[in-house]
Design a protein that fits this description.
mainly beta; Methylamine Dehydrogenase, Chain H; four-stranded antiparallel sheet; three-stranded antiparallel sheet; 50% strand; globular
């Protein structure tokens, strides 16, 4: 089983790495400024979708100084530095009036709490 690492930077980019080789899998331009929080949710349990059993995608959430939260879904591909076939934007929450300082997935009721000023 592969292990992954996620990092955010001052320019608002989020990067996903495969830890055994430190290979950069994708880079996402997520925020207009500092990334303050990140959380990753492993693939969900298998369910029936279109007659086939499929697991839900792994999810990645980022919180930024710009007051936005971005949620990315893993498309299953392993792109390069340009992010091709990697994580794709699944949802964006941008109604916070101030910086969002933390984000955390909860398994109960598919909840995504956030903290800010």
């Amino acid at each position: 089983m592969a292990l992954y690492g996620v990092a955010g930077d001052f320019a608002g980019n989020v990067r996903v790495y495969e830890l055994s080789s430190l290979a950069l899998l994708c880079t996402k331009e997520a925020h207009e400024g500092l990334v303050l929080g990140l959380d990753w949710c492993p693939p969900g349990p298998q369910s029936e979708r279109g007659g086939a059993r499929q697991a839900g995608p792994a999810l990645l959430a980022s919180a930024g100084a710009d007051g936005a939260i971005h949620v990315f879904a893993d498309g299953g591909g392993r792109g390069g530095a340009d992010g091709a076939d990697g994580y794709a934007l699944a949802n964006m929450l941008d109604e916070h009036a101030a910086a969002v300082t933390a984000v955390r997935f909860r398994s109960v009721a598919a909840c995504l709490p956030a903290a800010g000023e």
